[in-house]
Amino acid sequence: MAKRRQVPGRSTIDKDLGKFTYLEEAGQFVARGLVRPAAGLILLVLAGLLATLYAGNSPGSIGIIAGATLGAYMALNIGANDVTNNVGAAVGAKAMTMVQALVIAAVFDAAGALLAGGEVVKTISSGIVQSSAMPSGPAFIWVMLSALLAAALSVNLATWFNAPVSTTHAIVGGVLGAGVAAAGPSAISWSSMREITLSWVLSPLISAVIAAGFLAFIYEFIAYRQDKITAAIKWLPMLLGVMAGAFGAYLVFQALENVIDVSLKSAAGAGLAIGIATWAATVPIIRKRASGLENRNQSLRKLFRLPLVFSAALLSFAHGANDVSNAVGPLSAIVHAQSSTDLSETVHVPIWVMTIGAFGISAGILLFGPRLILIVGKQITRLNPIRAFCIALSASVTVLVASALGMPVSSTHVAIGSVFGVGFFREWYMQNSKRRAAYIAMKADENDIAVKPKLQATPEEARRRLLVRRSHFLTIIAAWVITVPVAAVLAAAIYKILALLSL
Question: How many CB atoms lie within 10 A of CB 428?
């Protein structure tokens, strides 16, 4: 009988080294998962240190430091959840990569918050709770701290469940709930709440109409013309001029108000000049990019990619200007309450407070943004660069106008309203446009293809042909509806706990 061959085994030291290797790999895997939370924690610590430098050992410094830390926490959650509104359409249309989208959103969000965010901050910090109705003592500080913590926790939970919600709803609900818990319904400025609620209802409708209008213009004058490229060379620079002009007028009127006195008429004139300059500058650029392109829709999409990047940057700027209030509005009220006995005075927004909000939002975008960035871009309706350009342009204009008026509209409402506007308009246009039908018939004649007569679709077939997913509509509406009461109840509970601990 042949002797069995012995297979050399691994030595004991090799086995022990292998265990250390597995342990090292496991440690690296766990460490990678902790990098982003650790970075976020460092930001909270830095915000607290910055507040310590400002407050020092003055009375009420604990409230300011706590407010700064919670404000930074809220800003992180805003960046993580709301980044989908800024660049989701561009990423969904494959006009930019994820890294490009995150960098653009982070830079322009911070710029918008620092340059043009003060007006809406005043609305959040002093326009909801009537300070004159608040009880004496630290009650007002507890209200703002409770609102911040409740809003941040609710948005954090929504982000964990991949649900894009309104951070504006969350902070307004938090201030509302904590205010009622502190002084009853009489502490709330219900006239301001009516205006805010009206803006929530109207803003998605307005943005939907604007987005549909831009898409209708592009379909009518570019996409369904016989010579698409020539039409794009003519009209695309004008669209860019309109966008740059609106942005320039807002920037001059809003961002420079603390430097020089600029009237609305002067700002409109500056916007007109910027728009004309942009149109003149982009004509040769678009003509050069269009050189050699084939006369088809795929070529149009290439021409719209660069403008889409610009519009995404504009929307990020608008988001920073409008939504920074959700993070630092209550903090501004806390700082004001510690430095003035008259809480009814106009709240001044310190630059260090705006800095916490701006960099907190940018950090949230970079650290946690990819988790939700494709929700708006792919899960409601199919997008290409042309449709995404209309969505971003419409949302930008709507949010910028609202921010200039001091209305804390929801950028989530505006962005998703634009997406639905584009999707529903496409459904209507494909069924009812005579120009599209004539264009298809012309192309069929050129290619000697018979156009098939329309057949009556069954209800099931008609449902499958819809371009907008109806299931998402009800889900989004439900999320919008429950955000305010959830944040309000949570803020009221937190306020009661803080009040008991302070006894």
Answer: 12
Residues 73, 201 within the same domain: yes
pLDDT digits (tens, 9 = 90+) for 171-218: 888 988 988 898 888 777 777 778 778 877 888 888 889 889 999 999
For residues 205 and 262, state if they share a domain: no
Q: How many CA atoms lie within 13 A of 168 on its CB side?
A: 28
Q: Taking every pair of C-alpha atoms in the chain, what is the biggest distance, in angstroms?
A: 106
Strands (E), 13-155: none
Do both 416 and 276 map to the same domain?
no
Same domain flag for 283 and 405: no
3-state secondary structure of 151: helix
Tokens of 39: 């970075």
Residue with tokens 């494959």: 94
**Where in the sequence is the domain holding 470, given as residue range(s)?**
33-226+312-501
In whole angstroms, what is the distance from residue 63 CA to residue 110 CA? 25
In a domain, 186, yes or no: yes
Query: What's the whole-number average pLDDT of the chain?
Result: 77
- The whole-angstrom separation of Cα 404 and Cα 112 is 12
Is residue 117, in this structure, part of any structural domain at all? Answer: yes
